[in-house]
Amino acid sequence: MIDLLIFSTIYKQNLSGYAIKAYIDGNYSPFFKISTGAIYPVLKKLINNNLIIENSSFSQGGQKKIIYSITNKGKDFFLKKLLENFSNSPQNAQNEFIAKFLCLNELEIEYKLEIINKLDKYLEYEKLKLEKHILKLKENSQNKFLLRLVESKQFELNEKKMMLKQIKSVQNL
Question: 75-92, pLDDT tens digit by residue?
């Protein structure tokens, strides 16, 4: 998931590792806490796979500065990754959803629609699973706490669907 946030950060602008970390902290910190020590190994992996490149320059003070840029291969990889199916693990899938949702802001409009539709399909699938689960819980009616918990998850999904719908209308998608 860190790779998605890095791709999103350098999708339209070339940045240093420090600036990438600052951007992630400034834009994604309510959802993800990522240490500097976690970013650099991912950057190296992306470089080794030719998904990003690094260029050296010098700051005004004469210090060496490494700037990271996404390659065309990296842009294609990023878009494919955004369209991948979600993890089977509910917690991982939720984090993936948030990361993909946050990445929308950086994309061109034609990609936004495709990814919003993918996110919407995922929410619809999860909503159907929850509805089946709610029906089973209501039949057994033994665990009202669990029923309330699942219903609150259903409410969260409906909120996310409404957000996607609003984004579509604001973006004229």
Answer: 999 999 999 998 888 888
pLDDT, the chain, mean: 87
Backbone angles phi, psi at 63, to 5 degrees: -85, 145
Smallest Cα–Cα separation from 124: which of 88, 73, 162?
Answer: 162
For the entire predicted model, the pTM comes to 0.78
Residue 67 three-state SS: strand
The beta strands (E) that lie in the chain are given as: 15-16, 52-58, 64-70
| 56 backbone dihedrals φ, ψ, rounded to 5° | -95, 140
Phi, psi (rounded to 5 degrees) for 51? -95, -25
Structure confidence at residue 142 (pLDDT) = 67
pLDDT tens for 140-173 read: 766 777 777 778 878 888 888 888 887 777 666 5
Q: Residue 39: name the closest of 25, 51, 55, 50 by CA.
A: 25
How many other β-carbons are positioned within 10 Å of the β-carbon of residue 133? 16
Euclidean distance between CA atoms 146 and 135, whole angstroms? 12
Residue pair 11/74 in contact (Cβ under 8 Å)? The answer is no
